[in-house]
Design a protein that fits this description.
Elements (H helix, E strand, L loop, with lengths): L17 E9 L6 E9 L9 E4 L3 E3 L8 E5 L2 E8 L3 E4 L7 E4 L12 E7 L2 E6 L2 E5 L8 E2 L13 E3 L4 E6 L3 E6 L8 E4 L7 E2 L6 E4 L3 E4 L9 E3 L17 E4 L2 E9 L2 E5 L7 E5 L7 E7 L7 E6 L7 E5 L7 E3 L10 E4 L7 E4 L9 E4 L7 E2 L20
Antiparallel strand pairs: 1-2, 2-3, 3-4, 5-6, 6-7, 7-8, 9-10, 10-11, 11-12, 13-14, 14-15, 15-16, 17-18, 18-19, 19-20, 21-22, 22-23, 23-24, 25-26, 26-27, 27-28, 29-30, 30-31, 31-32
């Protein structure tokens, strides 16, 4: 049977309150001591901390939210570990806290975004978005990282080279990784960084790679050699959501010339990304971002790009025939064009494929063979109830 223990419990009456659940911790050191970590907001803009309870009758209010875990020391009822984005410790029953690790710093080094804490046979287990840690002293000293045999990489950004086999990209929560053909199958080099949806490769010198959070990096020829920096004067619009990023798009016939979208502007480099010059501004709204860019292989003065609106479901498709100096807006097919993917035929600058990732069934992929004057709907039923994530024309097919 269950009985409601509500005596002294805090209840918000603010209309902006939000209940997101809770985490509970108990301790063998004092079975009457209960800690509760509330998830949600008691009021608007409530960043919150921790709610603790002593016994069943006295509840002391503070609030917390997502990325949360709490653990009480089984040998000391006053010591608790509280994890959110960062990891904190209290040795006075929650009256005060000191940082252990995370964005705020601390004496130890653990991944941010704490998810679950457990105490098993005197061993403390800390799980985060970046892995699992094992401690025999309640995380007083640096814990062991226990991930042997657990392999997973979620690329939020991705780039590739083909003169030399090179793969790069930003991983979800685990920084940027780089692969070179000399490293051997499955061996990647950790380049640093956080979790940016980034990673671009110079098509000429493939070992020169670019990232929004760590700048340019030149991959070494072996895993034991040092990573060296490479200039990268500006990074493009990037998004964690599919089909919502811009590119660092190189001119097909010159790998020192490239283009990227930043806010509602198109920028151009002529020195391989060392510096960029503003080429064109599309309207006045910075939030209407420049996204995907395609440059003609036969005539690099022909450039296509799409612009995603901050609100609404009607995007824009632009075309330049003079290297980006002037632009004309093309008429898009009917449908939800907020997100647009582009892929240009490398043998025909007038042959362009586009896709609407948010398009309805029957209105997802289109083709033009006359440079955007008209489009033909080529959507098949195979795409019903699917969201197009990427679009790539394979040359010669």
């Amino acid at each position: 049977t269950w009985a409601v223990q509500s005596n002294g419990w805090f209840q918000s009456v603010d209309p902006a309150r939000n209940d997101g659940g809770a985490r509970i911790a108990t301790t063998l050191a004092n079975p009457n001591r209960i800690y509760v970590y509330l998830i949600g907001e008691a009021k608007a803009n409530d960043y919150g901390f921790i709610s603790m309870a002593i016994g069943w009758d006295t509840w002391l209010y503070h609030q917390g939210f997502y990325n949360c875990a709490i653990l009480a020391n089984p040998n000391n009822a006053d010591e608790i570990l509280v994890g959110g984005l960062n990891l904190y410790r209290s040795t006075d029953g929650g009256a005060s806290y000191t940082s252990v690790s995370g964005y705020v710093g601390g004496p130890l080094s653990l991944h941010v975004d704490n998810q679950d804490f457990r105490q098993i046979n005197g061993i403390t287990w800390i799980t985060t978005d970046g892995g699992i840690y094992k401690s025999s002293d309640f995380v007083t000293t640096q814990p062991d990282f226990k991930m042997s045999g657990v392999h997973a990489s979620d690329f939020w950004g991705f780039g590739a080279g083909w003169n030399e086999d090179v793969l790069v990209g930003g991983l979800y929560h685990n920084g940027n990784q780089g692969y070179h053909e000399n490293y051997g199958p499955g061996n990647f080099l950790n380049l640093g960084g956080g979790e940016a949806p980034t990673g671009y490769v110079n098509p000429g010198n493939n070992r020169i790679t670019y990232y929004s959070d760590i700048g340019g990096k030149t991959l070494p020829l072996s895993l034991s050699n040092p990573i060296t920096g490479a200039p990268f004067g500006m990074s493009p619009n990037e998004s964690y959501w599919a089909a919502e990023s811009s590119e660092f798009e190189f001119q097909p016939n010159c790998y020192t010339i490239g283009y990227l979208g930043k806010d509602h502007k198109l920028w151009k480099t002529t020195n391989g990304g060392v510096s960029f010059n503003l080429l064109y501004t599309f309207g006045n709204a910075a939030a209407d971002q420049v996204k995907y860019i395609e440059v003609g292989s036969q005539n690099p003065n022909i450039i296509y790009l799409n612009q995603q609106p901050e609100t609404g479901n009607q995007g824009k498709l632009w075309k330049s025939i003079d290297g980006g100096i002037t632009w004309s807006q093309l008429t898009l097919p009917a449908g939800n064009s907020r997100r647009i993917l582009l892929s240009l035929d490398p043998s025909d600058d007038q042959h362009l494929y586009i896709a609407f990732p948010s398009g309805s069934n029957g209105n997802k992929t289109f083709e033009t063979t006359n440079g955007g004057q008209t489009f033909t709907n080529i959507t098949s039923s195979a795409l019903n109830n699917e969201s197009v994530q990427s679009l790539l024309y394979i040359a010669g097919t």
